[in-house]
Design a protein that fits this description.
By secondary structure, this protein is an alpha+beta fold. The protein has a single domain, classed as TATA-Binding Protein, CATH 3.30.310. It has one helix and four strands, in the order αββββ. The chain has a four-stranded antiparallel sheet with strand order 1-2-3-4, covered by helices on one side. The longest helix has 17 residues.
Length: 81
């Protein structure tokens, strides 16, 4: 497995694991977006909390220039480590 494919697998595994977490609201779902062609990977929270629309990025990774870029982290875990 080459370095790029290893990065893709590691990011997808991390996002899939974190997406299994439940946040207590059944009307809000975790959605995973994997774009291996352009090397973009995201976990989003999408749904409704009463009349309030919920839509935000939890984690966003890109692979650019042979490196993993953590673009956004709205968690309390240090996924960079």
């Amino acid at each position: 497995m080459d370095k790029l494919e290893l990065y893709r697998v590691c990011i997808q595994t991390l996002l899939e694991k974190y997406a299994q977490s439940k946040f207590g609201n059944e009307d809000v779902e975790n959605e995973l977006f994997f774009d291996p062609i352009r090397n973009h990977y995201q976990l989003l929270r999408v749904g409704w909390k009463g009349l309030e629309r919920i839509y935000y990025t939890v984690l966003h990774f890109d692979i650019k220039g042979g490196k993993i870029w953590l673009q956004h982290n709205a968690t309390d875990i240090d996924v960079g480590q």
